[in-house]
Amino acid sequence: MNHKIPALLIAMVAALAPGVSAQTTTAKIDKVQLEAALRHIELWIPEVQAKLDDPAPSKELPGFYDVAVHLSYNGQSIDQKYLVSGDGKKVVKGDIYDTGKNPFQANVERVKTDLQPSYGDAGAPVVAVIFGDFECPLCKQEAEAMRPNITKTFPGKVRVYFKDFPLEQIHPWARAASIAGRCVYRQDPQAFWKYHDWIYGVQGDIKPDNLSSKVLAWAGENGVDGVQLGRCLDTKATESDVNRNIAEAKGLGLDATPTMFLNGRKIVGAMGWPEMERLLKFELDYQAKTGDAGEKCCTVEIPTLAPKN
Protein backbone atom coordinates (compact mmCIF):
# COMPACT_ATOMS: atom_id res chain seq x y z
CA MET A 1 0.00 0.00 0.00
CA ASN A 2 1.23 3.48 -0.82
CA HIS A 3 1.96 5.38 2.39
CA LYS A 4 3.41 8.52 0.82
CA ILE A 5 2.00 11.93 1.68
CA PRO A 6 -0.27 12.93 -1.23
CA ALA A 7 0.96 15.62 -3.60
CA LEU A 8 -1.85 17.95 -2.50
CA LEU A 9 -0.60 17.91 1.09
CA ILE A 10 2.98 18.53 -0.05
CA ALA A 11 1.79 21.52 -2.04
CA MET A 12 -0.13 22.82 0.95
CA VAL A 13 2.91 22.52 3.18
CA ALA A 14 5.02 24.36 0.64
CA ALA A 15 2.48 27.16 0.46
CA LEU A 16 2.15 27.49 4.22
CA ALA A 17 5.80 27.18 5.13
CA PRO A 18 7.98 28.27 2.22
CA GLY A 19 11.61 27.36 2.56
CA VAL A 20 10.98 24.81 5.32
CA SER A 21 12.00 21.30 4.28
CA ALA A 22 10.77 17.97 5.56
CA GLN A 23 14.20 17.46 7.11
CA THR A 24 13.89 20.49 9.43
CA THR A 25 14.86 19.32 12.91
CA THR A 26 14.84 22.59 14.87
CA ALA A 27 12.04 25.08 15.36
CA LYS A 28 12.16 28.75 16.19
CA ILE A 29 8.83 28.81 17.98
CA ASP A 30 8.44 31.28 20.84
CA LYS A 31 5.88 29.65 23.12
CA VAL A 32 4.99 32.94 24.83
CA GLN A 33 4.22 34.59 21.51
CA LEU A 34 2.38 31.49 20.29
CA GLU A 35 0.20 31.42 23.41
CA ALA A 36 -0.64 35.09 22.94
CA ALA A 37 -1.58 34.47 19.31
CA LEU A 38 -3.73 31.45 20.19
CA ARG A 39 -5.51 33.40 22.94
CA HIS A 40 -6.42 36.02 20.36
CA ILE A 41 -7.46 33.46 17.70
CA GLU A 42 -9.45 31.22 20.04
CA LEU A 43 -10.88 33.99 22.29
CA TRP A 44 -9.67 32.32 25.50
CA ILE A 45 -10.55 34.54 28.47
CA PRO A 46 -7.69 35.55 30.82
CA GLU A 47 -8.90 33.13 33.50
CA VAL A 48 -8.19 30.15 31.23
CA GLN A 49 -4.81 28.65 32.10
CA ALA A 50 -2.77 27.43 29.12
CA LYS A 51 0.35 25.27 29.21
CA LEU A 52 2.16 24.63 25.92
CA ASP A 53 4.35 21.56 25.40
CA ASP A 54 7.63 21.89 23.55
CA PRO A 55 7.23 21.55 19.76
CA ALA A 56 7.73 18.06 18.33
CA PRO A 57 8.29 17.36 14.59
CA SER A 58 4.95 16.48 13.02
CA LYS A 59 4.47 13.06 11.49
CA GLU A 60 1.51 14.38 9.51
CA LEU A 61 2.93 17.49 7.82
CA PRO A 62 6.64 17.68 7.00
CA GLY A 63 8.17 20.98 8.10
CA PHE A 64 5.54 21.54 10.78
CA TYR A 65 5.60 20.85 14.51
CA ASP A 66 2.99 19.42 16.87
CA VAL A 67 2.31 21.70 19.83
CA ALA A 68 0.01 20.30 22.50
CA VAL A 69 -1.82 22.91 24.56
CA HIS A 70 -3.28 21.94 27.94
CA LEU A 71 -6.17 24.20 28.95
CA SER A 72 -7.78 24.41 32.38
CA TYR A 73 -10.54 26.54 33.83
CA ASN A 74 -12.65 26.26 36.96
CA GLY A 75 -11.60 22.66 37.65
CA GLN A 76 -12.11 21.51 34.07
CA SER A 77 -9.39 20.68 31.58
CA ILE A 78 -8.99 19.78 27.92
CA ASP A 79 -6.06 19.28 25.54
CA GLN A 80 -5.79 20.78 22.07
CA LYS A 81 -3.22 20.15 19.33
CA TYR A 82 -1.93 22.63 16.79
CA LEU A 83 0.46 22.31 13.87
CA VAL A 84 2.94 25.19 13.79
CA SER A 85 5.48 26.06 11.11
CA GLY A 86 9.15 26.07 12.08
CA ASP A 87 9.25 29.86 12.21
CA GLY A 88 6.15 29.98 14.40
CA LYS A 89 4.19 32.14 11.96
CA LYS A 90 1.74 29.63 10.51
CA VAL A 91 -0.74 27.65 12.63
CA VAL A 92 -2.94 24.81 11.42
CA LYS A 93 -5.86 23.51 13.47
CA GLY A 94 -8.00 20.57 12.48
CA ASP A 95 -7.68 17.07 11.13
CA ILE A 96 -5.09 16.11 8.50
CA TYR A 97 -6.02 13.20 6.25
CA ASP A 98 -3.60 11.12 4.18
CA THR A 99 -5.62 9.55 1.39
CA GLY A 100 -2.77 7.17 0.57
CA LYS A 101 -3.74 5.04 3.58
CA ASN A 102 -6.50 4.80 6.18
CA PRO A 103 -7.35 8.50 6.66
CA PHE A 104 -8.00 7.84 10.35
CA GLN A 105 -4.77 5.92 10.98
CA ALA A 106 -3.45 8.52 13.42
CA ASN A 107 -6.43 7.88 15.71
CA VAL A 108 -6.10 4.11 15.31
CA GLU A 109 -2.52 4.38 16.59
CA ARG A 110 -3.38 6.70 19.47
CA VAL A 111 -6.43 4.85 20.84
CA LYS A 112 -5.14 1.94 22.93
CA THR A 113 -7.25 -1.19 23.30
CA ASP A 114 -4.94 -3.46 25.29
CA LEU A 115 -6.36 -4.55 28.66
CA GLN A 116 -9.74 -2.95 27.90
CA PRO A 117 -13.12 -4.69 28.23
CA SER A 118 -14.39 -5.90 24.87
CA TYR A 119 -17.01 -8.04 23.16
CA GLY A 120 -17.18 -9.38 19.63
CA ASP A 121 -14.58 -11.42 17.78
CA ALA A 122 -10.84 -10.77 17.73
CA GLY A 123 -9.65 -9.87 14.26
CA ALA A 124 -12.94 -8.21 13.29
CA PRO A 125 -12.72 -5.83 10.30
CA VAL A 126 -14.53 -3.11 12.26
CA VAL A 127 -13.43 -1.95 15.71
CA ALA A 128 -15.53 0.44 17.79
CA VAL A 129 -13.83 2.01 20.81
CA ILE A 130 -16.28 3.83 23.06
CA PHE A 131 -15.29 6.40 25.66
CA GLY A 132 -18.22 6.31 28.06
CA ASP A 133 -19.51 7.57 31.41
CA PHE A 134 -21.81 5.34 33.48
CA GLU A 135 -23.80 8.36 34.71
CA CYS A 136 -24.33 9.77 31.20
CA PRO A 137 -27.91 9.32 29.87
CA LEU A 138 -26.74 9.43 26.24
CA CYS A 139 -24.17 6.72 26.97
CA LYS A 140 -26.96 4.58 28.40
CA GLN A 141 -29.00 5.20 25.25
CA GLU A 142 -26.16 4.18 22.96
CA ALA A 143 -25.21 1.14 25.05
CA GLU A 144 -28.80 -0.13 25.03
CA ALA A 145 -28.85 0.21 21.23
CA MET A 146 -25.55 -1.58 20.70
CA ARG A 147 -25.46 -4.41 23.21
CA PRO A 148 -28.45 -6.48 21.98
CA ASN A 149 -27.78 -5.86 18.30
CA ILE A 150 -24.06 -5.75 17.42
CA THR A 151 -23.12 -9.43 17.65
CA LYS A 152 -26.54 -10.61 16.49
CA THR A 153 -26.55 -8.44 13.36
CA PHE A 154 -22.83 -8.57 12.55
CA PRO A 155 -21.46 -11.87 13.90
CA GLY A 156 -17.67 -11.98 13.66
CA LYS A 157 -17.57 -8.56 11.98
CA VAL A 158 -17.44 -5.99 14.80
CA ARG A 159 -15.46 -5.78 18.02
CA VAL A 160 -16.42 -3.22 20.67
CA TYR A 161 -14.14 -1.86 23.41
CA PHE A 162 -15.17 0.27 26.39
CA LYS A 163 -12.95 2.95 27.90
CA ASP A 164 -13.77 5.06 30.93
CA PHE A 165 -14.26 8.79 30.56
CA PRO A 166 -16.25 9.93 33.62
CA LEU A 167 -17.21 13.61 33.37
CA GLU A 168 -16.69 14.36 37.04
CA GLN A 169 -17.61 18.04 36.84
CA ILE A 170 -21.24 17.19 36.04
CA HIS A 171 -21.57 13.53 37.15
CA PRO A 172 -20.71 13.07 40.85
CA TRP A 173 -20.68 9.26 40.97
CA ALA A 174 -19.29 8.50 37.49
CA ARG A 175 -15.65 8.09 38.59
CA ALA A 176 -16.57 5.73 41.43
CA ALA A 177 -18.69 3.69 39.01
CA SER A 178 -15.75 3.40 36.60
CA ILE A 179 -13.44 2.31 39.42
CA ALA A 180 -16.01 -0.32 40.43
CA GLY A 181 -16.32 -1.53 36.85
CA ARG A 182 -12.58 -1.94 36.64
CA CYS A 183 -12.61 -3.89 39.91
CA VAL A 184 -15.15 -6.27 38.40
CA TYR A 185 -13.08 -6.51 35.20
CA ARG A 186 -9.91 -7.45 37.13
CA GLN A 187 -11.79 -10.24 38.87
CA ASP A 188 -13.69 -11.53 35.83
CA PRO A 189 -13.47 -9.84 32.39
CA GLN A 190 -16.76 -11.36 31.24
CA ALA A 191 -18.58 -10.17 34.36
CA PHE A 192 -17.68 -6.61 33.42
CA TRP A 193 -20.34 -6.64 30.72
CA LYS A 194 -22.97 -7.81 33.20
CA TYR A 195 -21.94 -4.86 35.36
CA HIS A 196 -21.96 -2.51 32.36
CA ASP A 197 -25.51 -3.47 31.39
CA TRP A 198 -26.75 -3.48 34.98
CA ILE A 199 -25.43 -0.06 35.99
CA TYR A 200 -26.85 1.60 32.90
CA GLY A 201 -30.13 -0.13 33.64
CA VAL A 202 -30.32 1.23 37.22
CA GLN A 203 -28.69 4.56 36.38
CA GLY A 204 -31.64 6.58 37.68
CA ASP A 205 -31.49 4.87 41.10
CA ILE A 206 -27.78 5.41 41.77
CA LYS A 207 -26.50 8.19 44.05
CA PRO A 208 -22.99 8.88 45.38
CA ASP A 209 -23.93 7.55 48.82
CA ASN A 210 -25.54 4.27 47.68
CA LEU A 211 -23.28 3.24 44.79
CA SER A 212 -21.03 0.89 46.79
CA SER A 213 -23.89 -0.90 48.55
CA LYS A 214 -25.78 -1.40 45.30
CA VAL A 215 -22.65 -2.68 43.51
CA LEU A 216 -21.94 -5.16 46.31
CA ALA A 217 -25.55 -6.34 46.28
CA TRP A 218 -25.33 -6.82 42.52
CA ALA A 219 -22.08 -8.80 42.97
CA GLY A 220 -23.77 -11.21 45.39
CA GLU A 221 -26.48 -11.92 42.84
CA ASN A 222 -24.07 -12.43 39.93
CA GLY A 223 -21.34 -14.71 41.24
CA VAL A 224 -18.75 -11.99 41.79
CA ASP A 225 -16.62 -12.32 44.96
CA GLY A 226 -18.02 -9.57 47.20
CA VAL A 227 -15.12 -9.61 49.67
CA GLN A 228 -12.54 -9.16 46.94
CA LEU A 229 -14.69 -6.54 45.23
CA GLY A 230 -15.30 -4.63 48.49
CA ARG A 231 -11.57 -4.50 49.18
CA CYS A 232 -10.95 -3.19 45.68
CA LEU A 233 -13.62 -0.51 46.11
CA ASP A 234 -12.31 0.58 49.51
CA THR A 235 -8.72 0.94 48.32
CA LYS A 236 -9.62 2.32 44.86
CA ALA A 237 -7.16 -0.23 43.51
CA THR A 238 -8.22 0.36 39.92
CA GLU A 239 -8.23 4.16 39.98
CA SER A 240 -4.95 4.25 38.04
CA ASP A 241 -6.62 2.26 35.22
CA VAL A 242 -9.42 4.82 35.05
CA ASN A 243 -6.95 7.71 35.17
CA ARG A 244 -5.04 6.33 32.20
CA ASN A 245 -8.21 6.23 30.13
CA ILE A 246 -9.13 9.77 31.17
CA ALA A 247 -5.66 11.01 30.24
CA GLU A 248 -5.91 9.31 26.85
CA ALA A 249 -9.34 10.85 26.24
CA LYS A 250 -8.06 14.33 27.08
CA GLY A 251 -5.01 13.78 24.91
CA LEU A 252 -7.39 13.02 22.04
CA GLY A 253 -9.21 16.29 22.72
CA LEU A 254 -12.42 14.65 23.93
CA ASP A 255 -14.90 16.72 25.93
CA ALA A 256 -18.15 14.79 25.57
CA THR A 257 -19.60 11.32 26.02
CA PRO A 258 -20.28 9.06 24.38
CA THR A 259 -17.43 9.44 21.90
CA MET A 260 -16.78 6.51 19.59
CA PHE A 261 -13.78 5.80 17.39
CA LEU A 262 -15.01 3.54 14.59
CA ASN A 263 -11.89 2.21 12.86
CA GLY A 264 -10.37 5.52 13.95
CA ARG A 265 -13.23 7.74 12.76
CA LYS A 266 -14.32 10.00 15.62
CA ILE A 267 -18.08 10.09 16.24
CA VAL A 268 -19.46 12.24 19.07
CA GLY A 269 -22.90 11.65 20.53
CA ALA A 270 -25.35 8.77 20.75
CA MET A 271 -27.01 7.09 17.80
CA GLY A 272 -30.10 4.96 17.60
CA TRP A 273 -29.73 1.45 16.22
CA PRO A 274 -30.97 2.20 12.66
CA GLU A 275 -28.34 4.93 12.23
CA MET A 276 -25.61 2.82 13.79
CA GLU A 277 -26.51 -0.19 11.65
CA ARG A 278 -26.21 1.90 8.48
CA LEU A 279 -22.86 3.26 9.62
CA LEU A 280 -21.50 -0.20 10.41
CA LYS A 281 -22.66 -1.57 7.04
CA PHE A 282 -20.96 1.37 5.31
CA GLU A 283 -17.69 0.69 7.13
CA LEU A 284 -17.87 -3.06 6.50
CA ASP A 285 -18.39 -2.44 2.77
CA TYR A 286 -15.42 -0.08 2.75
CA GLN A 287 -13.19 -2.54 4.62
CA ALA A 288 -14.15 -5.31 2.20
CA LYS A 289 -12.53 -3.21 -0.53
CA THR A 290 -9.55 -1.75 1.35
CA GLY A 291 -8.84 -3.76 4.49
CA ASP A 292 -6.93 -0.77 5.85
CA ALA A 293 -8.34 -0.88 9.41
CA GLY A 294 -9.91 -3.27 11.90
CA GLU A 295 -7.97 -5.56 14.19
CA LYS A 296 -4.82 -7.11 12.84
CA CYS A 297 -5.16 -10.51 14.40
CA CYS A 298 -4.06 -12.89 15.59
CA THR A 299 -0.45 -13.95 14.95
CA VAL A 300 2.67 -12.25 16.28
CA GLU A 301 5.67 -12.95 14.05
CA ILE A 302 9.18 -12.94 15.53
CA PRO A 303 11.99 -12.69 12.97
CA THR A 304 14.36 -15.70 12.96
CA LEU A 305 17.31 -16.87 10.93
CA ALA A 306 15.51 -20.05 9.93
CA PRO A 307 13.68 -19.81 6.57
CA LYS A 308 9.92 -20.32 6.59
CA ASN A 309 8.46 -23.24 4.71
Write the layout of secondary structure elements.
Blueprint: H1 7-16, H2 31-42, E1 49-52, E2 56-57, E3 64-73, E4 76-85, E5 91-92, H3 105-110, E6 118-120, E7 126-132, H4 137-146, H5 150-153, E8 158-164, H6 174-187, H7 189-201, H8 211-221, H9 226-235, H10 239-251, E9 259-262, E10 265-268, H11 273-290
Parallel strand pairs: 7-8
Antiparallel strand pairs: 1-3, 2-3, 3-4, 4-5, 6-8, 7-9, 9-10
Helix pairs in contact: 6-7, 6-9, 8-9
Walk me through what this model shows:
It is a single chain. With 309 residues, this protein is of the alpha+beta class. It folds into two domains: 7-92; 105-290, 3-Layer(aba) Sandwich (Glutaredoxin). The protein is built from eleven helices and ten strands. The two termini are 25 Å apart.
Put the structure in a nutshell.
The chain has 309 residues and is of the alpha+beta class. Helix content is 39%, strand content 17%.
What's the number of helices? 11
Report mean pLDDT, rounded to a whole number. 87
Global geometry: globular
**Sheet with the most strands, sense and barrel status:** 5 strands, antiparallel
